[in-house]
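REQUEST ID: PR-0412
SUBMITTED BY: lab tech R.K.
PRIORITY: routine
TASK: structure prediction, single protein chain
INPUT:
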Amino acid sequence: MSVYNYIAKTYPGLEEPLARELENMGASDVAVLGRAVSFSGTLPFLYEANYRLRTALRILMHLKSGTIFDNGDLYNLVSLVPWEEWFLTSKTIAVDSVVINNSTFSNTVFVSQKVKDAVVDRFREIGGVRPTVDLKEADIRIHVHISGDNCDILLDSTGDSLHRRGYKITHGPAPLSEVLAAGLIYLSGWDQKTPFFDPMCGSGTILAEAAMIALDVPPAKLRNSFCFTNWLSYKPEDFREVKSKAAAYERKHCPEIMGFDIEPKAVHATRANINAIGLAKFVHAREADFFKEDPPFRSGFILTNPPYGVKIVPESLDKLYSDIGQTLKRKYAGYTASIISGYPPGFFKIGMKHDMKISIPNGPIDCSFRKYSIFQGKRADFLDQAAKNEISRSEQ
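STATUS: complete
OUTPUT:
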């Protein structure tokens, strides 16, 4: 079976979790790039990657590379690709272009037009029929990446971004991307055994992704379409086998997963979304004030995305983050807490020393993701006991 080269796109900061996902799935030649990870695999593996990767946005198949200096070089390079082997003229097409450090091809709209011309001209020469362009809902999406004098021609296997899982029936004013939520869970180091808690759960994206990870539910289980199903190489029986194998991996038990939110609409949205993915018996959300309620578990893992003052504006951001820190220190000893925020002073107001810090964007907002160990007494005593526990475990 033929092996192809692919590029999985992701958000900045999630390259390493994506690489680990691919390695765990059995991908070959995994290499971390900027906002992407390259890898190799068969076509059935490509189907599986689209179906099971949680931290990928889309997956592109590499078709051809070359050096280009002018419009003619670009046209000729695209013309060399045997497009007729990949799709029929009855399929609609669209071209997406990215240009970096090349003044000759600074206009991406022009690049896309030139590539489209080369594709349809090849079909005209072969049979006189050309495919139709559809910029919104194309069956076939071609990607062109020009960096300096190098040009890569790729085929989009995904279509709509993989963050569109299909379970979000409703969402709040500041929804978190499903891909970002899954990536944060991986970055946090949650062991999928400890009880999981989001004290400001909004529409429940973090809770849904945590449950799907713990139960090994495929993130694309509810998706209805992928671009690779429009390729001539597509074999439905191979995709059915991918889905069957994924279903066999699903677990029937997971740790307790709980969400609080003070807004009734948010809790309603969380329950609706969780129910849509079929996980209502594993995830519980209720209207509650994190600052007034007792912890839901004796110990556990917290991951949350509090307001930054952009779409949700509390009366005082400084007080909000100060209250978060005070509540964690007063009530949540024994927990691990991970927080993403686009309000830098907030972490100072939390008033705890972090164990881990990562810069990561949430859409257009530059955010920081930090992890805290919450303990009683002095931090030095806590770290000393943790080291002794680790030595004890290693000697067992």
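NOTES: The chain has eleven helices and 14 strands.
REVIEWED BY: pending
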